[in-house]
Amino acid sequence: MRASDLLKSRPEGLYCPPGDFFIDPVRPVERALITHGHSDHARSGHSSVLATQETLDIMGLRYGEDFAGTTQAATLGETVDINGVAVTFHPAGHVLGSAQICVEHKGMRIVASGDYKRQKDATCLPFEPIRCDVFITEATFGLPVFRHPPDHEEIARVLKSAAQFPERSHLIGAYALGKAQRVMRLLRDAGYDRPIYIHGALAKLSEYYQSQGIELGRLEPGTVESGAKADFAGAIVVGPPSAFADRWARRFPDPISCFASGWMRIRQRAKQGGVELPLIISDHADWDELIVTIKETGAAEIWVTHGREEALVRWCELEGIAARPLHLVGYEDEGD
Ligand SMILES: [Zn+2]
C-alpha cells in the first residue's frame, strides 16, 4: 500500500480513505480522531470523536458537553480497529492528554504526531518515539535558530526578578491550555510557595489539571476588585496573552510583563510585544528535538506540516530521507 493511499490532505484535514476518518479536521466531519485539545486541532461539531479521555474532557470544558454527536476514549497503546485500519494513540508530550496517532494498514504504518515536544514536562506524559514508515512532523520551530533553553532556567529568571523588585507584580502571559499550567508547575518545582494569581480564563483548565493529579499549589483569582492594588505587590500573576492588552493587566502595581513562548527566542518579537522579560518556554519541539525525533522513528519518509517546512525538508534530503511539505490549512497553534 502506498502511503498517500492511507493518509492524504483534504480541505477538511488529513483523511484516511480506507478507514474513512479524519485526523484533527478543521471542518465538521462524520468521524474525527483528535490529537489534543488546542482549538485549531480540536473543533466542535463532529458526528463522532475518538481522542484520549483528557482531550475529550478538555473539549467538554471548552465547548460544552455537546461538542460532538458521540465520543469514544482512546487508551494509550491500545489498538482500535476502524474499518480495517489499526489505530493506536501514543503520548506526544505536548499538553495534558496530547497524543500521536499511529495508523496502520496492509503493512504501511504512518504516525501523525500532531504537536509535540521532547523537553521534560511535569504536566503531561513524555513523547514516545514510534517506529514507522512515514512520520508526520510539525515544524513550528523548524529552523536551526530555534533552540529552547532548559525551562527551569527561564523560570529562575522570573523568580530572580521577583526577588529584586518586591514592590512590583510580575505578569506572565501563557496560553490557557498547557503552557499556563506548565509555568505554574515550574514555579512550584522551583520552590515558589506563595499563592499564584490567575486570570479567570485559566480557572477551569487549571482546576481540571489539578483534578488529574497535577499539583499547581494555591491558585487565587487575579482580580484587583477583590483586593487593593497594593495586595498584588510582589505577586506573580498568570494570564492568557490576549488579556495583556486590556484593562485587566493595568490594574496591577507597576507590572513587569513576561511572556512564555518559543517565539521569545526572537528578540524583535518580544520587543514589539512590549515584553520586558521574555521566557523561552515552548510546548513545541525545537530544531534539535525535531532532528532527534525524525531519526528515532526510523521513518524512510517525512511529511512536514504547519511551520517552517523548507528547512526541515532540506535537512531530511541531505540525510537521504525522503521528505515533503504537507500543506494543511487552518493550523495556527494556540500553544506555542
Ligand atoms: Zn497544540
Descriptive report:
This protein is α/β, with parallel strands linked by helices and 336 residues long. The protein folds into two domains: 185 residues, Ribonuclease Z/Hydroxyacylglutathione hydrolase-like (Metallo-beta-lactamase, Chain A); 129 residues, Rossmann fold (3-Layer(aba) Sandwich), CATH 3.40.50. Helix content is 24%, strand content 26%. The protein is built from nine helices and 19 strands. The strands form three sheets. A seven-stranded mixed sheet has the order 7-8-9-10-11-18-19, with helices on one face. A six-stranded mixed sheet has the order 1-2-3-4-5-6. Strands 14-13-15-12-16-17 form a six-stranded parallel sheet, with helices on one face. A hairpin with a 2-residue loop joins strand 1 and strand 2. Helix 3 packs across helix 4. The longest helix has 14 residues. Bound molecules: zinc ion (ZN). Zinc ion binds next to loops.
